[in-house]
């Protein structure tokens, strides 16, 4: 068999990136083995039953946008295109809890942002010309931060650039790469309202993004192994020839391909010399179980919060979830203190009265890589020095932030290279330094 025929593909990591690669390749007829260290799939995008709240919660709210075309294609491929919900129009309600002021950001249709000329659609206390700062971001140099481009003193910074950057890049705008904000603007806000409708999973992340993929893979006969941590690769002649898992070495056939879709801190332990971007800030989520529903059935309310502890509030049925990104200053506080501080903002955002609802605080310390200018050059390409080894993951060089959209794109890119047989080792990553073979005993 040549690499152009349907190679057996070993996908390591059942997060969104690994699943996107595995689903696409299995639909092309490739035999798939999927290795996941955790007892379930999903990685940083997972759901589980919380005994304290007695309901299913996500590790964190995941906001997607209608312009996330790879996410949409991925969901279509797993029969879950109807499992994202959001408002019918691009509408972002905000509250400033310091002043109790409310407004809605409502981008208009079309690529020319005429909506900035409407006081009722733009951020209060801003003028249309303030939005020209977007041009500075679109023309930013590699070393510039968002704050370098837009300044930090204006109401537009506090009420638009800061919440948008923190949400999209999980990084304070004073450290966040301006270049990484470019696709956020060009693929959503600057394409018009049809591309910037906020979307979230209808019931849970697992129900929308993970379980349908696992079902599709299982139906195609994929070999899915949970609780299986790949501990090392065996290399010979610049190919991976074996996978070391608990107590076993899985020998690979010469035509087999490996897609490594594990996080960067794992990838660098498996591939000698691989340079990866450093970890970024934590993300903290708080889930409250209300006595009564605040949003009906399959609908969701999303409110941005300025001037509080909470940043975004999501209400679905009787579950209210709060997201705080770039949460370095918060993450070491006690769960009780975090829940109490956020409840104040939730009550204001949703007009709730009464005692604080029971809650669960979820702290994700390694939520994304550090999305600062210096880190971007460390995002490796999909192809590696090893002819049959490809990388996927939100931290690879997708050109977009570390998001579900980025993870899916990375998986699709790995699948595209794998289905072309990945070719030769010519596509050496620029961030690669000379690898040492950890084992060369496959033959
Ligand atoms: C709290 C939080 C909130 C977020 N909010 C948003 C949001 O609003 N919008 C958005 O688009 N994105 C958001 N993100 C980012 C999004 O979750 C990630 O970009 C995406 O899930 C990354 O997927 P991935 O497959 O690249 O990596 P991962 O999800 O990390 O998947 C890697 C998988 O590899 C497995 N693994 C690791 N080592 C091994 C090994 N040795 N062998 C086998 N398996 C291994 C892991 O268990 C994991 O399942 C958020 C992330 C967090 C944590």
What does this structure look like?
The protein is an alpha/beta fold and about 450 residues long. Among the domains are: about 10-45 and about 205-280 and about 370-420, FAD/NAD(P)-binding domain (3-Layer(bba) Sandwich), CATH 3.50.50.60; about 110-195, no CATH class. About 25% of the residues lie in helices and about 20% in strands. The chain has eleven helices and 20 strands. The strands form five sheets. It has a seven-stranded mixed beta sheet, sandwiched between helices. Helix 1 runs parallel beside helix 7 (about 205-220). The longest helix has 16 residues, at about 335-350. Mean pLDDT is about 90; it is low at about 425-443. The site of flavin-adenine dinucleotide (FAD) has 39 residues, from helix 1, strand 15 and helix 11.
Helices and strands, with pairings:
Layout: E1 9-12, H1 16-27, E2 32-35, E3 47-50, E4 55-58, E5 64-65, H2 69-77, E6 84-85, E7 92-96, E8 101-105, H3 133-138, H4 146-150, H5 155-169, H6 178-187, E9 198-201, H7 205-219, E10 223-225, E11 232-236, E12 239-245, E13 248-251, E14 257-260, H8 264-270, E15 283-289, E16 301-306, E17 312-316, E18 319-324, H9 335-350, E19 359-364, H10 373-376, E20 389-391, H11 404-419
Parallel strand pairs: 1-2, 1-14, 2-10, 7-16, 14-20
Antiparallel strand pairs: 3-4, 5-9, 6-9, 7-8, 11-12, 12-13, 15-18, 15-19, 16-17, 17-18
The structure holds flavin-adenine dinucleotide.
